[in-house]
């Protein structure tokens, strides 16, 4: 069955990424927790804490099924009850303020043969924006998209800018990336197998991107002021995930596993009152780059 193939391939992606991150970190190991969902299905939550670079990171796989709650049926504009959803979700919070936070999600959702789709994306949230790193990141995503359609990157980059936007702060969560939803043959000119291959391609892009960004920045010196700014930027990440993130909402509304849903939150974040960076400081320059529509290519 197609959905079983998707789930199996996503499990392989989880395995590959966990192995690669342990090597990149050099010290931390993932702890695995197997869980079952009341109502159907379950998953493998893998968390690394207090590594050499990764302070808290989660690489989660789930494949769940059951009855769709009314609120979700309304949001998806569907009438059917029985759903299946599988995906891999990753959030990595480094301890080093010059190494960025990264998030990736690849997922497949199915109600029936007619109503099913792929979604996902990958985005970067640097505490300090380094323009060379931003260009590298976006180039890699463009390459991954161009393998399937030259229309994907510009479209999905715009979606990411719009989606990862903290409206009440009027700033983007980070430097964006790509974000896509409801991909199916009718709107991609690809077969279901090709869309699965695209989804897997995004998953396989994660490790080479993030290990490169770790290696570029892990040996740089930093100060206590850098750490305080990191905690401040993390608080914005928390605000987005708790107020706007659709994955968080879907997990909570479908009786998902709380620890797995909220693994995206950092181990520490600070909310200083009315924090304003000094004009022309590195912090100030970073804030100027937290806006939609920057062409990093």
UniProtKB/TrEMBL annotation:
GO molecular function: coproporphyrinogen oxidase activity
Name of the protein described by the UniProt record: coproporphyrinogen oxidase
Subunit (UniProt): Homodimer.
Pathway where it operates: Porphyrin-containing compound metabolism; protoporphyrin-IX biosynthesis; protoporphyrinogen-IX from coproporphyrinogen-III (O2 route): step 1/1
The organism of origin for this protein: Pedobacter psychrodurus
EC number: 1.3.3.3
Entry keywords, A to Z: Heme biosynthesis, Oxidoreductase, Porphyrin biosynthesis
Organism classification: Bacteria, Pseudomonadati, Bacteroidota, Sphingobacteriia, Sphingobacteriales
A cellular component term, taken from the record's GO annotations: cytoplasm
UniProt record similarity statement: Belongs to the aerobic coproporphyrinogen-III oxidase family.
GO biological process: protoporphyrinogen IX biosynthetic process
Family annotation (Pfam families): Coprogen_oxidas
Enzyme category, top tier: oxidoreductase
């Amino acid at each position: 069955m197609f959905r079983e193939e998707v789930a199996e391939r996503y499990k392989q992606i989880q395995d590959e990424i966990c192995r690669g991150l342990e090597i990149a970190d050099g010290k931390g190991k993932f702890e695995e927790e197997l869980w079952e969902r009341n109502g159907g299905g379950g998953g493998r939550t893998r968390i690394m804490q207090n590594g050499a670079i990764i302070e808290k990171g989660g690489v989660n796989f789930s494949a769940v099924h059951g009855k769709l709650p009314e609120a979700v049926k309304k949001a998806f504009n569907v009438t059917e009850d029985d759903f299946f959803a599988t995906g891999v979700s990753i959030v990595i919070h480094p301890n080093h303020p010059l190494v960025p936070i990264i998030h990736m999600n690849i997922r497949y959702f199915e109600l029936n043969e007619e109503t099913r789709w792929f979604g996902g994306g990958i985005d970067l949230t640097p505490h300090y924006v380094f323009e060379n790193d931003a260009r590298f990141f976006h180039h890699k995503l463009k390459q991954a998209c161009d393998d399937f359609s030259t229309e994907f990157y510009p479209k999905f980059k715009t979606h990411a800018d719009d989606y990862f936007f903290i409206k009440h702060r009027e700033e983007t969560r980070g430097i964006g990336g790509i974000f896509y939803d409801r991909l199916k043959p009718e709107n991609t000119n690809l077969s279901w197998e090709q869309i699965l291959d695209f989804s897997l391609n995004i998953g396989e892009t994660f490790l080479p991107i993030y290990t490169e960004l770790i290696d570029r920045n892990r040996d740089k010196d930093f100060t206590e002021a850098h750490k305080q700014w990191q905690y401040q930027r993390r608080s914005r990440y928390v605000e987005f995930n708790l107020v706007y993130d659709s994955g968080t909402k879907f997990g909570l509304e479908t009786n998902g596993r709380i620890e797995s849903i909220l693994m995206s939150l950092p181990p520490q974040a600070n909310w200083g009152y009315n924090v304003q960076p000094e004009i022309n400081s590195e912090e100030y320059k970073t804030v100027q780059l937290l806006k939609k529509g920057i062409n990093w290519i």
